Amino acid sequence: MTTQPFNPDAHCSVVIVGGGQAGLSMSYYLKARGIDHVVLEKHTVTHTWREQRWDAFCLVTPNWQCALPGYPYQGDDPHGFMKKDEIIAYLDGFIRHVDAPVREGVAVSRISKRAQGGYLVQTSDGAFNADQVVVASGGYHTPIVPRLAERLPASIVQVQSADYRSASALPAGAVLVVGSGQSGAQIAEDLHLAGRTVYLAVGEAPRCARFYRGRDVVDWLADMKYYDMPVEAHPLREGVRDNTNHYVTGRDGGRDIDLRKFATEGMELYGALTDYADGHLRFAPNLVECLNDADDTYNRINASIDKFITQQGIEAPVGGPYRPVWQPARERESLDLAASGISTIIWCIGFRPDFSWVDLPVFNGRGYPGHVRGVTPEVGLYFLGLPWLHTWGSGRFSGVARDAEHLAGIIAVKAQADARAA
């Protein structure tokens, strides 16, 4: 990594905002094309992986999918799942490999168009005039917390999923985890395995099998070309970008996360958290619906694998649908907070994008940028690293390289046209 000297009001052909895997991947391809650029990172490069993951965190995708540009996984366990320290080591190697021109500790406060063309990038340490800009700061910025959190007793410790580290770091007592997406389900599992009493407010997240018919489900889906499907070919089209990720885990070599099984072991499952009043938490009576919908997705994915195996004439162990191991006796809509012994609530209900600093008319009513594979209607402005920017892997180690290379080609064409016109 090359630390760039900062010259206020300097000119740069391309400014990349964000020093995560997306921004560094973009730098890799611009360097290969000899295009002048700088990466601006308000913290330190890849800080999210270091500072916003719990101690027992591991990848939920197999190691072979770690395919950052020019730096594929080289270890001896391609079908394993890297733990947090291994992920950081992998990223450290990638950082050295790219040697990007990075300016750390520089926050971008505004991006706007310049009357004479190009963009003005204002930062905490001066301004840049840029011909083109790549926003690679991700799409998970502001944690979602319901307003009811303001009314909870001051004695309740409230923690965001990004700030959770371990069961031992929390106060004694039971823990309520709100949300059952990837983070919520895995954090609930981490607490459960540590012997904590866990209450889980289940949401609408789907789930999938870890292994099915003798292989990791990811391997089957790769063979089925699911990870090559562009967003415009997906049945949901752009709506897939709003989908919650399926919950599954790579922990201890990988396994399903079965909330019903957790319930048989003492985890308390409720529907979605809706309110807090008179000392009681209120829940929607939708636990059965949420569990059934998650299982339906699980079985639907497995059925698609069954169909593929049959069509291809592949020999594989016999499969079959998941059969529930537990059913709620009834929907519980209220919980006495004091009587429950809950001392901590962990909010795991997602994040909202915050691109308020991008002062350009490219956003829809939900604050999400309009684009086609990262190319916005504003010529020379691009987004990279967002979920389903182009394919399932766009925001992940597996697919960000393909998107970055694509944008680098477009950036190069514009740079060449600008040079001819100058």
From TrEMBL:
The keyword Flavoprotein does not apply. It comes from the Bacteria. One of its GO terms (molecular function) is flavin adenine dinucleotide binding. Pfam families: Pyr_redox_3. This is FAD dependent oxidoreductase. Signal peptide: none annotated. It comes from Pandoraea terrigena. NCBIfam families: MSMEG_0569_nitr (TIGR04046). The keyword Oxidoreductase applies. Keywords: Oxidoreductase. PANTHER family: FLAVIN-BINDING MONOOXYGENASE-LIKE PROTEIN (AFU_ORTHOLOGUE AFUA_4G09220), FLAVIN-CONTAINING MONOOXYGENASE.
